[in-house]
């Protein structure tokens, strides 16, 4: 069964974010096709998409390579996120559905419970799902797409420290949902702005290390891409 290019794109992007391919490292179609068990056609399409997203650059005599963002470019991403996430929350207060609210409230309940018990890895995943759902609740596919792309690139460029007070952090998530549920766009924007500003302070650049492709002998499971 032919694996679609967008699935190959997701797999390559995830490996770039995870550091399997170092900044500046070459990405040859032949090796990528072999790694992911696909033909070169979806790999070629995926590389074009990743170049448009800023993860890949095409260099003369070298072909496709992992991009090497500067510190200023990385800082710009955080500033863009600080502007767009509050906008998304404001729009969500005006356009959210009951289905969005149900998911957001469920994530807040889980997050607050885990925050009281501890467990930063679970909280990180729950936080990602929360902000993804909040973006979707904005009712703007363009804004949702931009925020998703920002999250991918920020995860690639930055390591994030766990919140000093996860209970307080999830209380802020709860306050955002309360404002969204009431349709209070300004309060949703203000709380999200404060929350995003505090979160940004916990980001540390990952830059550094040798170029090239990191040795990775683990098998790549593409079975989920076939469904």
TrEMBL record:
Cite the HTH gntR-type domain residue spans from the record.
2-69
State the UniProt keywords alphabetically.
DNA-binding, Transcription, Transcription regulation
Q: Which SMART domains match?
A: FCD (SM00895), HTH_GNTR (SM00345)
Instruction: Kindly give the Pfam families that the UniProt entry links to this protein.
Output: FCD, GntR
Q: Record's superkingdom?
A: Bacteria
* UniProt entry tagged with the keyword Transcription: yes
SUPFAM superfamilies recorded:
GntR ligand-binding domain-like, Winged helix' DNA-binding domain
Instruction: Write the protein's name.
Output: GntR family transcriptional regulator
């Amino acid at each position: 069964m032919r694996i679609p290019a967008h699935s190959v794109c997701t797999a390559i992007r995830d490996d770039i974010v995870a550091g399997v391919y170092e900044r500046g490292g070459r990405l040859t179609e032949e090796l990528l096709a072999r790694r992911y068990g696909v033909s070169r056609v979806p790999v070629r399409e995926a590389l074009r998409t990743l170049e448009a997203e800023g993860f890949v650059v095409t260099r003369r005599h070298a072909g496709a390579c992992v991009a090497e963002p500067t510190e200023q470019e990385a800082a710009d991403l955080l500033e863009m996120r600080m502007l767009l996430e509050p906008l998304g929350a404001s729009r969500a207060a005006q356009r959210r559905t009951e289905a969005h609210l149900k998911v957001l409230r469920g994530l807040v309940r889980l997050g607050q419970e885990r925050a009281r018990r501890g467990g930063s890895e679970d909280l990180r995943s729950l936080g990602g799902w929360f902000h993804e759902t909040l973006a979707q609740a904005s009712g703007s596919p363009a804004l949702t797409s931009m925020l998703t792309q920002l999250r991918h690139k920020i995860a690639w460029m930055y390591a994030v420290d766990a919140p000093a007070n996860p209970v307080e952090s999830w209380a802020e998530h709860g306050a955002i949902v309360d404002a969204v549920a009431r349709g209070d766009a300004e309060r949703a924007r203000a709380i999200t702005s404060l929350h995003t500003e505090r979160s940004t302070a916990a980001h540390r650049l990952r830059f550094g290390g040798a170029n090239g492709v990191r040795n990775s002998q683990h098998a790549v499971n593409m079975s989920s891409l076939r469904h």
